[in-house]
C-alpha cells in the first residue's frame, strides 16, 4: 500500500455539512443541503488528495461495551433530523460513486474503527479527517488529524500541535478528557476541573493512575478532595474515552483492498447531481469528466433548485 491513508469520520463530516448549508432543496421538495456539502467536500478531496488510499468510516449500532459501563452514554443527543435522514441514501451513493469504500462494524463507533485502523497501519502515513477530541489520542508521528476549518481547509495536527492546543501529549489525552468530561457524549468530569486545571494535573503527575496513587501531592486541599471523591468517575471515564485499537475480524485484516480508492464513476456522479438538480456540482463533474476524457453528461433540463424561504438557490462554495 502506497501513499497516505485517508480516514474520514463520515457522520462528523455529514453533520457539519448539513448545518453549514441550510434550506436547500430541489423542485420536488427533496432536501439536498447535506448532499451538496458532501459533494463539495468530495470534489475538494479528489482535487487536493489524489492517489491516496482510504475510506469513509461510519458509526453502526450502539457501542454495547460503553453502554454497559454507562447506560446514559450519549443519551443527551437528539435523533437525526428528518431532513438529514432523507439524504443519507444519496450521500452513500455519492461516496461510492467517488470511488470510496465505506467501513462500518455493528456495535462499533466510527472513532473506534478509525483508532483501530490507525493502530494497524501505524507504519504508514495516516491522515484522519475529523474534529473529534477523542481521536487526538491516536495521533503519532505518522498519524495526524486533519481538522476542517472555517475557510474550507484543514488544520494539520501532529504530536506537537496536540501539545500546543491541549498542553498534554496525545498519550495523555484520555486522562485529560477523563478529568474534564465530555458534554457531547454525556460524560461528566470532575466538578470544578476545567481544561487548564486538568492539563496542570496531567503534567504534574503524568497520568491519572499516578495522581490517584498519591493524592496528597495535590497542593490545593479543595481540589484534592474533589479528585479523591471522583475516583470511580475517573476510572469509568478512562474506559469510556479510550478508543478500541482491536476490532475482531476486521475487514482490513482480511483484505486491505477495502482501503483502495477506485476511480470515480463520473457518469453515476453526473446522474446523481442531475437527479437532485445540483447544477453547480454537475458543472464541476462535467469539467472533471472532460479532463478525464470521458463522455460529457448533458445538463439537466430541470428548474433551478427550489430553495426554502430566505435561501439562495445554491450556497456558496463551502470547502474552497
Q: Radius of gyration, Cα only, in angstroms?
A: 22 Å
Q: Name the structural class.
A: alpha/beta
Give unreliable regions as ranges. 293-320
Mean pLDDT: 88
Q: What would CATH call the class of the largest domain?
A: Alpha Beta
Calculate the terminal CA-CA distance, rounded to whole Å.
29 Å
**Would you give the CATH topology of the largest domain?**
Rossmann fold
Q: What topology, given as strand order, has the largest sheet?
A: 3-2-1-4-5-6
Query: What's the helix count?
Result: 15
Question: If you had to describe this structure to a student in words, what would you say it looks like?
Answer:
With 320 residues, the protein is of the alpha/beta class. It folds into 2 domains: 5-167 and 244-259, 5'-nuclease (Rossmann fold), CATH 3.40.50; 170-241, DNA polymerase, domain 1 (Orthogonal Bundle), CATH 1.10.150. Helices cover 43% and strands 10% of the residues. It contains 15 helices and 8 strands. It has helices at 10-20, 33-48, 64-69, 82-85, 88-97, 110-120, 159-166, 173-180, 195-205, 208-213, 221-229, 231-241, 251-254, 266-275, 279-291; strands spanning 5-9, 53-57, 101-103, 126-129, 143-148, 154-157, 181-182, 187-188. A 6-stranded mixed β-sheet has the order 3-2-1-4-5-6. It has a two-stranded antiparallel ribbon with strand order 7-8. α8 (173-180) packs across α9.
